[in-house]
Amino acid sequence: MPIIDLKIENTIIITKSAFSIYLKGMLTMTKYSVTARKTNSSLQVDAHTRGIHNTLDEPKANGGTNTGLNPVELELGSLGASLQETARKLSASNNLPYGFLFMQ
Question: How many beta carbons lie within 10 A of that of residue 58, not counting itself?
Fold first, then answer.
């Protein structure tokens, strides 16, 4: 039995073995899945999907080894990437030129 089994309006499902987010598209539902595992090094976590590995960690001041983004930094980066894609799609659908969106 999963340690955490949470459903919120059929859009987010979190289980012990993987984090899966279901995003409703216009006609289809896409499943995204990432597995996050604690490493043997301090607060490090290895998050991976599709053969791609990312290290999450905390700064040394917070007890980590500073070898990767912390979860909040990763989330902010994810938001930035999502906004980039949204801006690109909106500009294309409105025939507007788009180079990049800078966020800080």
Answer: 21
**Would you state the pLDDT for residue 17?**
44
CA separation for the pair 18, 49 (Å, rounded): 10
Q: How far is CA 98 from the centre of its chain?
A: 24
- CA distances from residue 26 to 3, 23, 29, 30, 77 in whole angstroms, order as listed: 32, 10, 8, 11, 25
List of the chain residues with pLDDT < 70: 1-29
Do residues 56 and 38 touch, judged by C-beta distance below 8 A? no
All residues at 6 or more sequence positions from 36 whose CB lies less than 8 Å from its CB, including other chains: 19, 45, 46, 47, 56
CA separation for the pair 42, 66 (Å, rounded):
10
Q: Are strands 19-24 and 45-49 parallel, antiparallel or unpaired?
A: unpaired
Q: Which region, left, alpha or beta, applies to residue 19 given φ > 0 means left and ψ of -120 to 50 means alpha?
A: beta
- Rounded Cα distance between 81 and 67, Å, is 21
